[in-house]
């Protein structure tokens, strides 16, 4: 039952993702922004320096003014019925996450007549002075759109300070000479122009755009964490390039770009209400950089680019819980956090091969970040043994990480039936699990067999006998593997990885959980869809959801903020953060050494 491997292109694309208005809510207050003090913090390999006024966990971050550089409302194709898309969804998310202002784009400005829809967007958001329109623009020569002079007049009349361009989607050639008047107008007036790399072509086309229009401020959204080797050199070389972290969820990315002198080019942009604004603000709230630079990224840089001289009122959710308040203060969460999906590089490495760059991805960096966020423990697996297809080297890498881990961390082993015989596998399984710190099983799709194939039987039988658990990144479009294994091996707790990556995936996870009492869902994935965690809880209950981050492939801060800024009750969040994880590992607690056992003790 060996299956054909995914193509490289299809795998990378898949894994990049696995990369009518209302008023303000009651209890939501506005006040003038207050900022002072400075701090510089570096996690892992970096030192911590604090001034007299503020400590690392102090209140300086609570007054950060967040101005969202890209949100988008409106209908879209292929939308799941539960996906959020309305203006009211955006407003609720902003209120929930204490976002003070936002640039708002409109899907219809791309999907229908541009200027008709641009003006419609202005009518939609007119009642909300903290929302600013983003118009989609294109050249005028086909008679469908105003010429630059007319465009400039309309933008001034409608207080439009930023535009998007969609050359690919709207079928025009940005390199053509007839486009020069449009870009000359935008450049002369330094109008913030927002786009994605694919809209301009290949990465070399993006660089050509930056060279052609050096005075035009360009904001790149939608780049993925596995495109760092393209993005990072461009940001460092071209100061008119600005980036957001919506999909660019790179481990310690804020700290790296701050260190390389790019702070003024970093923009908080959430793509709400498709994505969670809380996920992306947490990345900035926890940024280990001076407070003044966090303020730039949260909103200062954007206001400068938009030429906004008077700051919007600082808006704060007065009904936030203690977890949301802790993140806004940049403090460790005051409840236990157990991460069920953690990878590890060898100490000192920043690269995982393939397309993967993972800044500070060894034990010092990982455990330093974990401490900063308030972790009490979690399950560690190697990167080289899983994704790099070197299972025999991966398990020792995990053991080395456990050797230097704080209290509360255990290991997941991996075994590859495509490289080793059944007899070799049985011996390796016994040898690795002789280390009592290993209680988890982590197969991977690169091994080339579906997980219910007989080549895995020796591993699953051993796990069932010892009451281990398995973390399954499905290798099929459905969850047949998980459902088959859950029935066949009832003493194993089977965890569906990335169950929150989409509403479609959530539907499949809900169905599996309803069928089998030993199936759980772990949420992590790049898209951080707004509302999907609540959707999972509503469909499958609050006792089978687990927090995981997939660090350091992605930075854990977005994944943590996605859950913390959800609308779930505090007690449910606490279950997902740690309490449910304790139920998963409970059958193995007697096996685990004391140092590897996490605690739910109050902090």
Automatic annotation (TrEMBL):
InterPro entries, alphabetized: ACMSD, Amidohydro-rel, Metal_Hydrolase, TAT_signal
Pfam family, one: Amidohydro_2
Gene3D superfamilies: Metal-dependent hydrolases
Domain Amidohydrolase-related: 338-584
Alphabetic keyword roster: Lyase
Name this protein carries in UniProt: Amidohydrolase-related domain-containing protein
């Amino acid at each position: 039952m060996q299956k054909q491997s995914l193509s490289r292109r299809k795998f990378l694309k898949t894994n990049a993702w696995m990369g009518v208005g209302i008023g303000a809510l009651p209890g939501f207050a506005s006040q003038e922004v207050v900022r002072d003090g400075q701090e510089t913090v570096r996690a892992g390999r970096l030192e911590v320096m604090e001034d007299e006024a503020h400590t690392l966990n102090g209140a300086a971050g609570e007054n950060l003014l967040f101005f969202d550089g890209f949100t988008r409302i409106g209908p879209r194709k292929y939308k799941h019925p539960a996906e959020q898309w309305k203006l009211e969804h955006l407003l609720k998310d902003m209120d929930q996450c204490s976002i003070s202002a936002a640039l708002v784009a409109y899907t219809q400005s791309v999907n229908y007549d541009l200027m008709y829809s641009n003006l419609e967007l202005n009518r939609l958001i007119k009642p909300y002075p903290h929302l600013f329109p983003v118009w989609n623009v294109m050249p005028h020569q086909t008679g469908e759109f105003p010429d630059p002079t007319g465009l400039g007049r309309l933008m001034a009349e409608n207080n439009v300070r930023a535009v998007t361009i969609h050359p690919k989607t709207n079928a025009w050639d940005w390199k053509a000479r007839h486009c020069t008047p449009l870009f000359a107008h935008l450049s002369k007036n330094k109008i913030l122009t927002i786009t994605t790399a694919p809209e301009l072509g290949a990465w070399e086309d993006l660089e050509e755009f930056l060279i052609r229009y050096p005075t035009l401020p360009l904001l790149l959204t939608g780049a993925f964490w596995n495109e760092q080797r393209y993005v990072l050199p461009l940001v460092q070389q071209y100061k008119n390039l600005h980036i957001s972290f919506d999909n660019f969820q790179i481990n310690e990315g804020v700290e790296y770009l701050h260190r390389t002198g790019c702070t003024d080019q970093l923009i908080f942009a959430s793509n709400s209400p498709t994505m969670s604004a809380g996920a992306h603000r947490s990345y900035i709230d926890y940024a280990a950089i001076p407070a003044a630079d966090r303020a730039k990224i949260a909103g200062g840089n954007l206001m400068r680019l938009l030429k906004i001289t008077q700051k919007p009122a600082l808006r704060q959710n007065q009904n936030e819980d203690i977890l949301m308040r802790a993140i806004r203060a940049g403090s460790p969460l005051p409840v236990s956090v157990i991460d069920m999906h953690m990878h590890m590089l060898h100490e000192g490495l920043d690269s995982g091969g393939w397309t993967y760059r993972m800044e500070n991805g060894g034990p010092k960096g990982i455990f330093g970040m974990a401490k900063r966020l308030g972790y009490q423990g979690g399950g560690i697996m190697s990167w080289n043994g899983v994704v790099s297809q070197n299972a025999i080297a991966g398990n020792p890498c995990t053991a080395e990480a456990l050797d230097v881990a704080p209290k509360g961390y255990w290991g997941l082993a991996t075994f590859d039936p495509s490289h080793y015989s059944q007899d070799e596998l049985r011996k390796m399984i016994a040898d690795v699990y002789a280390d009592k710190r290993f209680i988890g099983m982590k197969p991977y799709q690169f091994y080339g067999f579906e997980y219910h194939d007989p080549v895995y039987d020796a591993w699953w039988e051993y796990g069932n006998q010892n009451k281990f658990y398995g973390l399954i990144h499905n290798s099929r479009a459905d969850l047949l593997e998980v459902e088959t294994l859950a029935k066949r091996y009832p003493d194993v707790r089977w965890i569906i990885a990335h169950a929150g990556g989409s509403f479609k995936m959530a539907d499949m996870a809900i169905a599996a959980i309803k069928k089998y009492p030993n199936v759980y869902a772990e949420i992590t994935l790049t898209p951080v869809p707004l509302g999907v965690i609540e959707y999972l809880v509503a469909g499958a209950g609050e006792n089978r959801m687990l927090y995981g981050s997939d660090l350091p492939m992605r930075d854990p801060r977005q994944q943590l903020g996605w859950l913390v800024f959800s609308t779930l009750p505090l007690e449910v969040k606490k279950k997902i953060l740690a309490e449910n994880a304790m139920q998963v590992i409970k059958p193995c607690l007697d096996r685990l050494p004391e140092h590897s056992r996490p605690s739910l003790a109050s902090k």
